Amino acid sequence: MCQLLGMNCNAPTDICFSFTGFRKRGGGTDIHSDGWGIAFFEGKGVRLFVDPQPSARSPFAEFVRHYPIRSLSVIAHIRKATQGRVALENTHPFIRELWGRYWIFAHNGNLPHFHPLINGAFKPVGETDSERLFCWMLQRLAARFGDAMPERAQLFSALSDVVSELEGLGTFNFLLSNGTCLVAHCSTNLAYIVRQAPFAVAHLKDEDVTVDFNELAASRDRVAVIATAPLTDNETWTIMEPGTLWMFHEGQVECVSGGHQTK
Question: Which residues, in sequence order, are CB contacts of 55 under 8 Å at separation 6+?
Fold first, then answer.
């Protein structure tokens, strides 16, 4: 199973602490060794790093771990290949443009019989079901809303409809962001935590690193972190119910649907 990591904040924040533990799962504390990637939004731009090497041993991952890139929305992925060879073009996150904004997507799961008709606007470059799924999702959104980007509530409703069409086709945990909001779908495994004042001390599961967020964060800061499995062992994470779709905005849950939850 691949590993997902997302961050959504109300003020630009670096992901160095979370990424320090997360990268170890790529061939260190876990078996996922088929590449990794991370995307940072900065305004309307995106910094994208992808590497087919295991993240636990990647020089690029070591660079990212120490480089405090500040962003409102971040998506990272560690790959365990199911469809498509180990190659740069098959490494998540994937990026496309829609409505004059970049969209970033990463997927954990397998959709073995998902071969939709893809039009010319969004075409896969690699061989993965994940990139195919991303292109199809954007195609459906473009068909529904035309040339105008919808409000977040409309976007969330449309994504709920799109997700419902995939039920029964396989496993599809995913993270999707346009730089302002971050949408997470839990098919099997996802968890999240919202860090805000009063802040606490956090200790990573995958590496012996501790951070006191009181020394790093301002009193108004609010940061939501989403991961396949909790990254720390001394904080309370919320385990997402399978079959739920979540939207995070400015570091907090704005919408959730599916399962037994609606907000």
Answer: 22, 23, 24, 25, 26, 27, 35, 36, 61, 78
